[in-house]
Amino acid sequence: MWKFLQTLTQDVISTKSAKIAILAFVISTLCFSVILIVFGYSYSKDYGIQAAEIPLWLRTTLSFGFLLFFVLLWFILYIQISREADDLYSDIRMNLKGNWAVKYQASNGVQADPFLPPLRVDCDIHINPENKKLEMEFNVSDNPIYAPGKQIINSVALSHDSGSRYSLFYYYNEKRKINGQLWRYLIEDDDFSKVEGIEIEFFGILYFERSLTEKRVMLMEGEWFDLNGKVTQLFSLVDLVRKNENQLAQKLSAAYINNSNFAAKMGKIQYERLG
Fold it and tell me: Whole-model pTM?
């Protein structure tokens, strides 16, 4: 229990809001300590410095004043620091806007080695006008597992590594409709519905450098991970169908996965700017 409380306390204190609250509390305490010293002590030639009697109404006023000042200062500091953080990455977001050609490794089939060359999809990176955050919109077509359509990722975050190097993280968790040529080899169950599709969950991390001479970022490279294993199972099924057109329909959970492909890592991914 003590270890749990220590971990919980450390996690809470490490959050940005908690750190700002502590800073606001320290500043408020210092300010009101000065006020108490001024009003709480008196000086005379005969008795020197003595503690003065503070009226009840003044003590009540100071208590409410401290609380109000603390909350107001916390709010002001939070807004200011959030704006500074937003300004820090606003230029980076502008540098990432535009159309990208995405090449990614994904086709780890029944065997350990990929049975298809890297796949390609077009991506439009733009800024959401409501929250000023990045969004990634993929135009999916001619995909071995997905039905044609839009795929939008709005869970995107930026991080400054060192110098001119940055990282971009993105997370996706939605139900996707499956390619019509593929789903006829699938039996509907809890994992798969012909109407709703299959729940896909993946995570990607990209690395890029911000050039001092080029306003736009031209290249991002990294890796992506199949978090719930569905993409890996689907590509295993694609591999089986490639080898045997008379493949019988089966449940997705029955798709064979080679031991070497059992990890979440799918492979490398590259974003190259178009135009």
Answer: 0.67
